[in-house]
Amino acid sequence: MRLALLTDLHANREAVEACLAHAERQHIDQYAFTGDFVGYGADPAWVVRTVMAYVARGAVAVQGNHDYAVTRPPSARMHAEAREVIAWTGGQLDAEQLAFLAALPLIQRHGHACFVHASAHAPERWEYVTGIAEAERSIRASGSRIVFSGHVHAPALYRRADDGRMGRHVPQAGEAVPLQPQHQYLVLPGAVGQPRDQNNAACYAVFDDAAREIQYFRVPYDHGVAARKVIAAGLPIVFAMRLVEGI
């Protein structure tokens, strides 16, 4: 089975369309969306509706912190600009879309795989997996051979060897990384809708369980259009600049 992994879509229609079109050419059997479908971008209704359609056809989806926030009272944990977008987003979604986001699970396990937006260790705390210690904590808590997550907005791959040693790999675009069956892995595909690794091309990954490999992709898209839509919607200009600069 070939599984397309998309995370942190962040209401960016142009990036989502580009990644889904690219994935359709990769002979994908299944899709997984690991959270943050809203926030930052100007097309939350279109993105949520698209994810809902994929879920109706059997895709996996879990809740991200922005999806959680838009269905609940404002949280002081979010910075002011993000809260402003969340408040605006709530007015863009209909009741069915809000109910869909509210009902999403924080974590799903299927076979040897675990799907979670942040860390499998206390996923409701939205911990960022930015290093070896956080990755090991998530892998151990998952009870799974492979963990697929997001939240970090940059691609990475962590390995926990059968002797307990941890390792980290920064994948390159188009690189297919072989996975050893005796090890455990944590896969961060990078963000579809708001990359933050000095590269404004959208990110996603494909896991092939038969070939035992993960392949990372960068997909250029019209980030200028997406940025102008953010500005036209009256949202904080910083989120438009991030799309252009990839930070």
UniProtKB/TrEMBL annotation:
A single GO molecular function term of this UniProt record: phosphatase activity
Superkingdom, natural source: Bacteria
Pfam families associated with the record: Metallophos_2
A GO cellular component entry from the record: cytoplasm
Annotated CDD domains: MPP_superfamily
Domain Calcineurin-like phosphoesterase: 1-208
Alphabetical list of InterPro entries matching this protein: Ap4A_hydrolase (IPR050126), Calcineurin-like_PHP_lpxH (IPR024654), Metallo-depent_PP-like (IPR029052), Pesterase_MJ0912 (IPR011152)
Gene3D superfamilies (alphabetical): 3.60.21.10
Protein family: Belongs to the metallophosphoesterase superfamily. YfcE family.
UniProt protein name: Metallophosphoesterase
Annotated organism of origin: Massilia cellulosiltytica
